[in-house]
Amino acid sequence: MKQSQLFTKTRREAPADEVSKNAILLTRAGFINKELAGVYSLLPLGLRVVDKIKKIVSEEMEALGSVEFLMSTLQNKEIWEKTGRWSDEKVDVWFKSTLKSGSEVGFGWSHEEPITNLMTSHIASYHDLPVYVHQFQNKLRNEVRAKAGILRGREFLMKDMYSFARNEEEHMAFYNKATEAYLNVFRKVGLGDITYVTSASGGFFTDKFSHEFQTLCEAGEDTIYITDENGKVAVNGEVEKKGDPKKAVEVGNIFTFGTEKCEQMGLYFNDEKGNKTPVYLGSYGIGITRLMGVLAEVFGDDKGLVWPEAVAPFKVHLLSLSENSKKLADEAYEKLQAAGVEVLYDDRDARAGEKFADADLIGIPTRVVVGEKALASGMLEVKSRASGETRELPLKELINELA
Ligand code: ATP
Ligand code: MG
Q1: Highest CATH level, class, for 3-299
Q2: Domain coordinates of the chain in residue numbers?
Q3: Beta-sheet strands, E only, within 79-188
Q4: Which residue puts its alpha carbon closest to atom 16 of ligand 1?
Q5: Cα–Cα distances in Å, from 116 out to 134, 162, 263, 276?
Q6: 316-402: same fold as 3-299?
Q7: 315 CB under 6 A from ligand 1?
């Protein structure tokens, strides 16, 4: 993509109304736009990062045998009343509205009740089970505090998966596989070293009902205590624990509901012996936009964002520095693109200093400079955003390396 076609502009100054590092950097670099407190639009660069994260998550969920679907945002009050969760006392983040007819509707903050209800028309016998489904859905939550940028949005993108199993054994087999898949996701997006499986009451193997995935991060609202550094296991700070407290952000959550919700919602199946049996439910969330915020928090430096390769909006940021070198830069752009390398080409009529500062701010892993030096020697200056290491390479070698 040519940067001249990107309508988004970088900003030198931090937006006056933002306090969190992720919102400041992502706004300055043109990845997000604040609409109102806790509500952000994704601009082209931000959308590309979100799409990369989604792709990694999709692959892992599909490998588990889950199929993608998409539920509605407007939700039926009666369905939530069946489990008592329509109540604002029980669920303190509801956004609700009223139809012209006078009946109330809710905005989806979660989909456990609607998906369980939906399954009553698809699951009838043991032949129909197990079922695994997931979606990428914008959740709406009336969060009290919304000062953490996209770490805590009032509208945010979540991946939610649901498992419907015949019994606890079948459920736990999937739950354990899902735990591994989640760790794969966090490793693939570049957070493997600092992400822990946590539980409230102890080690992973003693508490099988619910686990969180917590990424170490100064901006985190949670406190965890690491119990096994190699096994990436920790406990969260709800109870006094031994060891050093660490700030962390919950990037994912997996939860066993057992059969209770299905009993409340009327989701039963006929087992092999013809007995009417309630379905065993599990729920598995990952905060997709929150993950983008965590990556900005964890890797961002004093110059701007620093994206891990796997989720970077582009692999290469190509900078054309002068009018004279434009032809050579155009050629490099075309050849890189033809080789399948994702390139953002700064073809703008701007000063070199501005282009360098913008490249640092946007944080694409590899910066390639085409200027007077390249004209004279045919060598391109190639710099790593993460390490700052600079090398000189002919275009052909660069393409071989990246393609
Ligand atoms: P938290 O304790 O941070 O409020 P939660 O327990 O409410 O999270 P879940 O309902 O389990 O979260 O949602 C699944 C995932 O969605 C969370 O693990 C988190 O990554 C993400 N998430 C939850 N709330 C928000 C939010 N307001 N903004 C962005 N992401 C969120
Ligand atoms: Mg919450």
Answers
A1: alpha beta
A2: 3-299, 316-402
A3: 95-98, 104-107, 131-140, 155-165
A4: 287
A5: 13, 9, 10, 17
A6: no
A7: no
* Residues of the chain under the 50 pLDDT cut: 202-206
The CA 220 to ligand 1 mean position distance, Å, reads 12
Buried b (16+ CB within 10 A) or exposed e, 62-84: eebebeeeeeebebbeebbeebe
With a 6 Å cutoff on the Cβ, whether 171 touches ligand 1 is no
> Which tokens belong to 119?
């399954």
Given a contact cutoff of 8 angstroms between Cβ atoms, the answer to whether 365 and 22 are in contact is: no
- pLDDT tens track for 251-294: 999 999 999 999 999 999 999 999 999 999 999 999 999 999 99
Domain 316-402 falls under CATH 3.40.50.800: yes
Which listed ligand is nearest to 285 at the C-alpha?
1
Question: Quick check: pTM over 0.90?
Answer: yes
- pLDDT for the residue numbered 208: 62
Average pLDDT taken over every residue of the chain: 95
Which CA distances in Å does 211 have to 183, 206, 253, 275, 392?
12, 11, 6, 32, 47
Helix (H, G, I), strand (E, B) or coil at 133: strand
Cβ 152 under 6 angstroms from ligand 1: yes
Phi, psi dihedral angles at 126 (to 5 degrees): -65, -20
| Residue-level pLDDT at 236 | 85
